[in-house]
Amino acid sequence: MGFKARAQKSKADSGKDDKAKSKKSAGETACAVKSCAKWADKNLGGRSLSFDDATEMWGNGNFSSAKGRVRVCKSCYRSWKKETKNDDMY
Ligand SMILES: [Zn+2]
Fold it and tell me: Which domain holds residue 49?
């Protein structure tokens, strides 16, 4: 009996969770790389590179920057890191 009540409750909870999750998966900060459509939010693994770093990687004009910083998504950051071989502190 107790199990049934719990199952129902968790079902309701997970429905709530899904809603919150789908809201979260749409970020607020778009990746600065123009050819990329991912999100650069911190909670989604986004990182910030310097303007020079981004220019080296993607070329001037292929990304947008704000105040000298370039917000990129997780996968762009990783490919940048791979490119620069900036060792393995991740
Ligand atoms: Zn990206």
Answer: 27-85
What confidence tens digit (pLDDT) does each residue in 56-74 have?
999 999 999 999 999 999 9
With a pLDDT cut of 90, the percent of the chain lying above it is 60
In a domain, 4, yes or no: no
66 C-alpha to ligand 1 centroid (Å): 15
Distance 82 CA to ligand 1 centre (A): 14
Ligand 1 centroid to 79 CA: how many Å? 9
- Please tell me the distance between residue 80's alpha carbon and the centre of ligand 1 in angstroms: 10
Looking at the structure of the chain, the number of domains it has is 1
- 24: pLDDT strictly greater than 90: no
d(CA 80, CA 58): 9
Q: Where are the beta strands (DSSP E) in 1-90?
A: 47-50, 69-72
The pair phi, psi for residue 46, each rounded to 5°, is -70, 155
What is the pTM (predicted TM-score) of this model?
0.66
